[in-house]
Design brief:
The chain is an alpha/beta fold. The chain contains 8 helices and 10 strands. It binds adenosine-5'-triphosphate and magnesium ion. The site of adenosine-5'-triphosphate (ATP) has 12 residues, from β1, β2 and α2.
Length: 244
C-alpha cells in the first residue's frame, strides 16, 4: 500500500460505524398453540452495532420477549437469520447455543428470578453452574464477591433474597448476569417491579456497567422514562419493528 492508500484506509476505518454485533434478517417466529398459529415476530430486519444501548417498547403481546429470546440464543427463529458476531444462531445446535449463552450473554429477567434458598453470593455463583470453563471454587467465590461489590452489595453477601429490598435483589440479578463478563446484556423489564427512586438507581447502574465494560445492552421496557435513557429506541408491535 502507498502512503496515500494507507491514509485513506485509516480514515475509512476511523469514520466507519462500529460493526454490528447482531444482524437479524427476515426473522419470523411462530408458535403453534393447539390448532392456532401465533405469529410473534413477522419479518424483522434489524442491525445492532456493538456497544449500543437499545430500548425496546411496545404493547403487550407485541413480541418483545420473543425477540429477546432470539437475541439471547434461548430459541431459534422459525425462519430468517439471527447472527451474533459471525455465528448464525438459527443454524446452530443446542450445544452451541448453550455455549453462546454461557459465554457471551448476560440475562436480567423481570421479577429478579433469584433462587430464594440461596444467598446473594450463592445466587451470583450459580451463574457458573455447568460452566465449560472450569474455575476453582475459590476463583468463583472471588469473582462473585467482586461482582457484588461492584453493584454496591459487599455488605449483603450472605443475605437471602427475601432479606433484600427489590432494588438490592435486582442488583444481585445484574451481578449474576455480568459475573462471567459477557459481551451482551439483555434485560426484560429490569425496572418493572421497582419504585421510581430505585428505578433510577438501577438504570444508573446498568448505564455504568454499559460504559465501563463496553457492553451491548438491550432493555425491554414499558417505561418511557427508561427508554428515553437509551441511545436508540425500537417499537415492536404485532411482531414488527420500527425505530422511534
Ligand atoms: N411459548 C409460547 N407459545 C405460544 N404462544 C406464545 C409463546 N410465547 C409467546 N407467545 C405469543 O407470542 C406473542 C408475543 O409474545 P411476547 O411474550 O413476545 O410479547 P411481549 O411483547 O413480550 O408482551 P409483554 O409486554 O406482555 O411481556 C403473544 O401473542 C404471545 O401470546
Ligand atoms: Mg414480555
Amino acid at each position: 500500500m502507498t502512503e496515500t492508500e494507507t491514509t485513506i484506509a485509516a480514515e475509512a476505518e476511523a469514520s466507519a460505524p462500529p460493526s454490528p454485533i447482531y444482524r437479524l434478517t427476515d426473522v419470523t417466529k411462530t408458535y403453534q398453540q393447539k390448532k392456532k398459529k401465533v405469529v410473534a415476530l413477522s419479518g424483522v430486519n434489524l442491525s445492532i452495532p456493538a456497544g449500543q444501548l437499545v430500548a425496546i417498547q411496545g404493547p403487550t403481546g407485541g413480541g418483545k420477549s420473543t425477540l429477546l429470546q432470539m437475541l439471547g440464543a434461548l430459541d431459534r427463529p422459525t425462519s430468517g437469520e439471527v447472527t451474533l458476531g459471525e455465528r448464525n444462531i438459527a443454524a446452530l445446535g443446542d450445544h452451541a447455543l448453550t455455549d453462546i449463552r454461557a459465554t457471551e450473554i448476560g440475562f436480567v429477567f423481570q421479577g429478579f428470578n433469584l433462587i430464594p434458598t440461596l444467598t446473594a453470593l450463592e445466587n451470583v455463583e450459580s451463574a457458573f453452574a455447568g460452566s465449560l470453563a472450569k474455575l476453582s471454587k475459590d476463583e468463583i467465590r472471588e469473582r462473585s464477591t467482586a461482582a457484588l461489590t461492584e453493584v454496591g452489595l459487599a455488605e449483603r453477601l450472605d443475605h437471602l433474597p427475601a432479606e433484600l429490598s427489590g432494588g438490592q435483589q435486582q442488583r444481585v440479578a445484574i451481578a449474576r448476569a455480568l459475573v462471567k463478563n459477557p459481551r451482551v446484556l439483555l434485560a426484560d423489564e429490569p425496572t418493572g417491579a421497582l419504585d421510581e427512586a430505585t428505578r433510577e438507581e438501577i438504570m444508573t447502574l446498568i448505564e455504568r456497567q454499559w460504559k465501563d465494560r463496553g457492553l451491548t445492552v438491550v432493555i425491554v421496557t414499558h417505561d418511557s422514562w427508561v427508554a428515553k435513557r437509551a441511545e436508540r429506541r425500537l417499537h415492536l408491535k404485532q411482531g414488527q419493528v420500527r425505530e422511534i
